[in-house]
Amino acid sequence: MPKFNLDTFNKAYFDRLRSQVIAARDRGIYVSIMLFEGHSIQFSLPPWRWDGHPFHKDNNVNGIHGDPNGDGYGLESHTLKIPAITALQEAYVRRVIDTVNDLDNVLYEISNEDHADSVDWQYHMIDFIHNYEKTKWKQHPVGMTTHRKLGNQVLFDSKADWISPSKFRRENDPYEVDPPVAHGDHVSILDSDHIPILRNDHARDQRSWVWKSFTRGHNVLFMDPYLEYMKDRNYPKDSKPDPFYNPIRRNMGYTMRYANRMNLAAMIPHNELSSTKYCLANPGSEYLIYAPSGGMVAVDLSSTFEMFHVEWFNPRTDKTIPQQKTAGGDIRSFTAPFRGDAVLYLYR
């Protein structure tokens, strides 16, 4: 079998990468370029684990050995323990950046679901990208994700521009049932791959997760199983996606619709301004509030005496119900005109 020469790049690979990012740009899509894959070297079965890796000592002509402890995983290649490998990885990252730097629709992710000893290596790569892009025309957001033994604190302590926290409790994990406020140190992305949407998560649970996350300042991603049959998880039929997941699909679209209407850059989470504790607000200008149980919602409008438009939105039916204007200057109460969870939008 031919072996890798780690000192040369495959031009066709980088040409394809660039063409795919451009195709996504032309369709209004951002691309997250995952630079390294940490899940496969831990959990995949041969030959998709270490057996076929370029840093396996039998797979390259450069004498690179990325598994010095011989355990068959090569986890050392995602640490700083082997300087020759780190140098090769930096060269590859430079080439990726050179390939797509002029394009706006690019995010970088260091590695997918990597192991516990990879943290310093991931921090190094974040710094490396930031420093290299300082010499380039454009700078792009660099992200870090977590998995199992890493925990979420390593994300909060990082210099990444965006992060993707994960759930770590089997039941009642906060990122699943009551997402903590995203304070703005990093762009926060909540991904259903790491906070799973399961078959026992009914329509209301799906809607609630989307709106709670959005009003707490997070960005929601759904890893849609689409047409892939997955026992106990996804049942597509006649080339159509499983309708079980329609509530999360639709409500992500509804939140995007409000994001486009609002001055989103000025909106930050303000739990204290709403009795429901789920509130995105630019105080004195506009407020978006999620009421998981519907009913009466109290909103603190004391920052201005101006008049506000009042709008209720039903996330089950996609129906908007405008109501009479209300004045600021005090805490005002509003009652949803329908049963179930509800969204309240106040704007001047």
Put the structure in a nutshell.
The chain is of the alpha/beta class and 348 residues long. Helices cover 26% and strands 21% of the residues.
Question: Overview of this structure, please?
Answer:
- The chain is α/β, with parallel strands linked by helices.
- It has two domains: 11-266, Alpha-Beta Barrel (TIM Barrel), CATH 3.20.20; 269-347, Sandwich (Jelly Rolls).
- Helix content is 26%, strand content 21%.
- The strands form three sheets. A six-stranded parallel β-sheet has the order 1-2-3-4-5-6. It has a six-stranded antiparallel β-sheet with strand order 7-8-9-14-11-12, with helices on one face.
- Residues 267-339 form the Putative collagen-binding domain.
- This is Putative collagen-binding domain-containing protein.
Strand fraction equals 15-25%
Q: In whole angstroms, how far apart are the ends? A: 68 Å
Order of helices and strands: HEHHEHEHEHEHEHEEEEEEEE
**Class from helix and strand fractions:** alpha/beta
CATH architecture of the largest domain: Alpha-Beta Barrel
Main sheet specs: 6 strands, parallel
**CATH class annotation of the largest domain:** Alpha Beta
CATH superfamily of the largest domain: Glycosidases
Could you give the order of strands across the largest sheet? 1-2-3-4-5-6
* Overall radius of gyration: 23 Å
Continuous helix count: 8
InterPro entries: Collagen-bd_put, GH
Pfam families: Collagen_bind_2
Protein name: Putative collagen-binding domain-containing protein
